[in-house]
């Protein structure tokens, strides 16, 4: 068989390796490869008659493979000029202040093509800054805040790389001029400027570096009595804290930067502001009732008006009560008013008390109370009679029972409405009072309605709305 010689690759850059391989040799035959001025290599062909050798490309020329039995074969290698490896270095920002983070980036290319995976060492005359590995864009970076004031020459050197170029040892430099540290300034302001004791006060610290806002700085707010809390500066360089604990008198509030990174050294920078707190304003609770002269069983609305220094207090919770116990609670509206309506006040004079039990304002209102004496006249005679229900057979869920409701003492011809539970409960039926003032009606109750233990009859009399409640239960006979 004749030898066949193949070069892989057949075209290389100077310094790049290639393989010369033959087929068709006799098994065990000694094949000698020669190329340019390289030392010839003799390789024993394997059982399939194959043999190969590796050389480094130097110049374009003929490669020969020869054996004593199979003869010789040749192929021509083409060697191109070595590729060029280039490193460039940039720094951002180019003119930082002392202590400001600087990012140094090296870009490695081979004949203009990015080199990925190259390891780059960054250093100055003061020592190493760190290493980075190039990305697909051929870039490696390191960030440092340790560069001293003055001119710093940063060198980026490729210390390892796999590429068609010889990049190891290639380097470049960038000059980073570091200026003296910028000035960090903290200013404080309080709103409102002259609060009352117990009124919320917002203290705002503004942190700037060379006149520019410092973002992300942690500010500790405190007085001589201790810390008030912390805040973190926003994009405007402002951090705020709201407190209602400052006592009456002059309070010196200090804002101190305890953490934060910027071109300035801001940690430890502080400022003060004096917040003069006036004595607490007076909280007043007044009560009124409607109607002025109710009858027993007639609904009465008691209203508490809460003011602070004469201004309405919104959102205060008021407990209404008598010596017999609580009547209910209400929450003041924008006019500072809260109300409760009751029909349980007995005939005679009853003192109703309205007490603030919760609420936030410039005043300390919790615990402040007002009273109103409500004089209730004798009952009108309008009376709801006990009612009972008879279970239907079969007791269907929607027609479980039948009950007759009745009331006496109504104005003849007036409409009487019967409610389950209280006066605002569901209406089961209505009736018109006869000439004797009696009214009654029969209603079919569902399975849920029989669970009510009471009902209330309502009507309108000469003096206004009337109501009366009575029991509701199963008929026993």
Automatic annotation (TrEMBL):
GO terms for biological process: carbohydrate metabolic process. Residues 86-179, 185-278, 284-376 form the Big-1 domain. PROSITE patterns: BIG1. InterPro entries: Big_1_dom (IPR003344), Ig-like_fold (IPR013783), Invasin/intimin_cell_adhesion (IPR008964). It comes from Streptomyces lydicamycinicus. Belongs to the intimin/invasin family. Gene3D superfamilies: Immunoglobulins. This is Big-1 domain-containing protein. SMART domains: BID_1.
